[in-house]
Amino acid sequence: MNITESKTFINYSTGILKGENVIESVRKLGDIKDIYTDKKAINRMDQDQIAYKVQMHNTENEGKEGGLYIGTSFLYPGRVGDEYFMTKGHYHQKRDTAEYYWCISGEGILLLMDETENTNAVKIYPGSLNYIQGNIAHRLVNTGENILVIGACWPSDAGHDYGSIAEHGFSVSVKSINGKPEVISR
Ligand code: S6P
Ligand code: ZN
User: Fold this and answer.
1) Which residue of 23, 54, 110 sits with most ligand 1 atoms within 8 Å of its CB, as the best mutation to test the pocket?
2) pLDDT confidence of 63, banded at 50, 70, 90?
3) Distance CA 153, CA 131 (A)
4) CB 175 less than 6 A from any atom of ligand 1
5) Of 30, 32, 42, 150, which has fewest CB within 10 angstroms of its CB?
């Protein structure tokens, strides 16, 4: 029997995925301006500045039951006013689907919010592993000075519901107060 070659690769120290079925998407500040509380500050910034990139190994059609995706998110450091750069954040469309997040490099906070808007803020740093249960909205916040690199694995039928977050937001924001991250009710 022939032994076949692996076609996709992950670099454990950088999180970078390479090879077959790897796709990448980019979110610029202008694409996500609505998530920030300080509207004046975001409007003064370069709308083409990259906020984050997401790579994923796209092996299944989205919506396929029983499949998995793996991906790496690269969230740049920075602030909009006092608020740290963050991802849009989402619930999964199919609510009761979970996800793993593990931190490869950088430091930050993982915001986890249930549907009654109770939010937990979890410190993340290289080696930290978080299991995100179903029905929990998740958002990454980069509180460090380097790129926050996060690996993720989620079901291919999870989907993304950005609408609920766009409408109601998260119940807290993470701001730099006297140079230190603080989680503040919105
Ligand atoms: C997918 C997973 C991540 C995020 C990525 C960007 O379920 O949670 O790959 O998509 O971190 O965040 P967002 O909120 O813009 O999708
Ligand atoms: Zn997710």
Assistant:
1) 54
2) very high
3) 10
4) no
5) 30
